[in-house]
Structure formats: C-alpha cells, structure tokens
Amino acid sequence: MKVAEAKTRPVPSGPDEAFDLNPDEATFHKLADWVSKYGDIFSVPSVNRQKPVVLINHPDYIKHVLVSGHENYVKGSGFEMVKMLLGNGIIVSDGPFWRRQRRMIQPAFNKQVIAGLTEQMKLANRRLFSVWSQHAESGTEINVTEATNELALEIILRAIFSNDYERITGGTNANPFAILTESVARDLQLALKFRALTKIVHEAVAHRRASGVEQEDFLSIFLAARDKDTGEPMTDKELVDEIMTLIVAGSETSATTMNWAWYSLATNPDVETRFHAEIDSAGYTDVPGFDDALQLVYTRQIIEETLRLYPPVWLFSRKAVADDALAGFAIEAGTEILITPYFLHRHKDFWPDAENFVPERFDPDAVKQRHKLAFIPFSAGPRRCIGDFFGIVEVQLHLGLMARHFRLRLSPGQSAELAPEVNLRSKYPLMMQIQKR
Length: 437
Ligand code: HEM
Fold this sequence. Notes:
By secondary structure, the protein is of the alpha+beta class. The chain has helices at 3-7, 25-38, 59-68, 80-86, 95-105, 111-138, 144-161, 165-169, 179-182, 188-211, 218-224, 236-249, 252-267, 269-281, 290-295, 297-309, 341-344, 364-369, 388-405; strands at residues 9-10, 41-44, 53-56, 73-75, 142-143, 316-320, 324-326, 329-331, 336-339, 406-410, 418-420, 424-426, 431-436.
C-alpha cells in the first residue's frame, strides 16, 4: 500500500444495518452496544443522510474535530430542530456570523459579571428554599426534577432581565416561559409555542431600550455590545435569537445537572458526608455568594463527577466541510461526525471503575494525569459552552444553600432511569423525601 493510501484508509465499518443516529433513546441503546463492539471510531450507514455517519469515541480524535482541526467542522444536521427554535442564535450559527456574535456576547460571561449575577441566583434559590422548608416541615415529598427545572429557568431569565423579570413573567404561576419546563416533546407544537415567546422577548427588549436604564444583566450587556469591525450593535432579531438561545441552552442543562447531583448524593452516602463537612465549615450564613462558591472545592468536584456520569448534552455532531484525514482514516466532505460525551466519560482507558460516583477523580493531581479531552461535558475548542462557569457556579450555590439545611433521600420505590433526549433527563420525575439537617 502506498503511504498516501495508508494515511487515508476508509473508516472501519461498524454495523451493517442502516440507522439514523439522533438524540433519542433508540440511538442511545444502539450506541451502547456498538461502542463496546466496534471501539473508538466506526461508521454507521444512514437512512436519511447521504453518507454513513462516523462515530468517534477517543480524546485524540475528538481533539482533532473540536480543537486542532475545528476550522473544517461545522455544526451537524442534528441542529436543524434547534434552528427551528432558535433562529440563527449562537449555538446553531457558523462561520463569520457565529464569530461576530460570540465576540459580542463573550463579555457577558466574564467573572465579574457572573459574580454580580449571583444576586439573581440567590433570589431564585430563596424562593425555592421557602417552598422546600414547608415540605420539610410537613413531611411531604418534593419533586426534584420539577423544582430544579423551574429554578434553572428562573435563574437564566433573571440573569437576562434582572429587575424586569417579575414584569415579564407575571410572577411564577403565570410564567409564560414555563412551557419550556413542562413540554417534554421537542416537537413542532413546542416550536410554535416557543416562537410566541419571542414576542415577549421582543417587547422586553423594546421596553429596556425605551427606558434608557442600564441594568446589571445580560440584556444590558448585549444592547451595549458593538461589532468590533463595523461599530454596529446587534439588530433586534439577532438580539432576540441570542436571548432565546441562552434561555434554552442555559436552563435545561443546568437543571438536569442539579437533578442528577441530588440523585448521586442520595445514593452515595460517603460522598454526601464529605460534602456536608465542606458545606458546614464554609463561611457563609445565608445563600452562598460568588466568593463562597469558589471555596466549595469538593462541591465543584461533585458537580464535575455528575457531569461525567450524566452529561446533559450526551451526544452532539459536526459536519466536515472539506475532505480530511482523521486518525489515518479518510473523512469525505459532508460526512457527519458524532461525539458522545456519555460514552467517552465511561471509556475504560480513561475512567477506571467508570460506573462509580467518585468526585475525587477531579482532584487537581488526578486531572493532570488524564487526557484533557477525556472529559467534555461542555464540548471543547472555540465552540465550547460559553456558560460553563455560570452553570457550575449556579449549581454550587443551589447545592451549597439547600444541603446546609436539608438532606434529600429517594422516596420509597423511586429509581432513576435515563431518558436520553436532546438533554439527558431522568425518565420519571425524581421524587425525594426532604428532612431538616
Ligand atoms: C451544566 C450546564 C451546561 C452544560 C452541560 C452545557 C453544555 C454545552 C455544550 C456541550 C455545548 C456545545 C455544543 C456543541 O459543541 O455542539 C454548549 C454550548 C453553549 N452553551 Fe452550554 N451548557 C451548560 C450551561 C450553559 C449555560 C448556563 C449557558 C448560558 C447562560 C449556556 C450557553 C451556551 C451557549 C450560548 C452555547 C453555544 C456556544 C457557541 O456555539 O459558541 N450553557 N453548552
């Protein structure tokens, strides 16, 4: 074989059957089988796509697609549904438009802004705290899945609109955005309802512009952002697309992380004991603030371990723009590449005893020993999640407040099954008993 040929062999074939890989349960079960059978790179014939889809499950290959060779990879076709919801928001756009938007939005995610926004996170947590206190008092169980969905939605809406939050949502009961936590199906009907929400966001933007008042929130930062080349601000349409994007990208992901964190704590008592020791000896009196959150090192490791075992974005895709070589295999232009944080995070070469919940894996020394790209709950490279730090701080504050006062235990008969959809949810709401500590 000539050298050139050796470098570009066809990707090893996987299963013979044609199958459309999507973020759904059927795909999840197929992949569980195929990843163990066919290894770190294989192709799957597709029903609807023109070419076989290539699945990669090794940090080196993922590094090529997301980091070193990222210029050649755009978002895959799995983002079409998301596009329907989010117009051309930053999570689905590509190329120069994406770059411009990312640059304009990035300042909203610097440390100082997030520190300021923890005030909004505290407000939302205080509301939930009083609800959970009543349940602890009366001995009634709580629906953790529902509570964390509502909490994360409230937090992102408050981060965007701060003092306008109450006006826009009309109080928590009438919150028109609640359809986002209530609708399980990501279907056309949801898309239509969702587009109706954009009207509310349009009005909120107009109201803020007219008021001329600057607030400490994402909306004011986005309104002030200017294109570095043209000096132009975002148009209203662009602004609304980006706000809707943040609402979607920044609520269910954080909510499922909180959900699985409570589940993991309840089922790993030794971890919970060490966690309580950290929480109880921390210096805060009320809801932890930004500086307190930075001190909650073990809590952060618990969140990272939760994200390893239950990565909310358990599957995502890219598409090759031009022909490429990956791991010595030929990737034709137009080929879709699938990346599955869920299976990567259980890869036996990088994660011994992968099924066990061991936050100590995220001790700095242990992290140094590991391939950097073996842990990608937030993706990697230039398209890495812009809200990664926001999300971690948000979950830290929530756990740090609630666990100081309450212990959560699974209700009798409660189990947790995975529901691998766009996000990795729990199939049934997680019902838990809440006791005062
Ligand atoms: C634990 C919580 C979160 C997880 C696991 C998560 C995960 C991810 C992942 C995997 C991606 C990349 C998808 C891809 O490469 O195709 C992403 C992108 C993104 N996330 Fe997050 N996310 C979280 C929280 C948040 C929050 C709180 C926000 C906003 C406040 C946010 C906003 C975004 C945005 C705007 C993008 C698109 C970035 C770009 O394409 O430039 N995320 N997220």
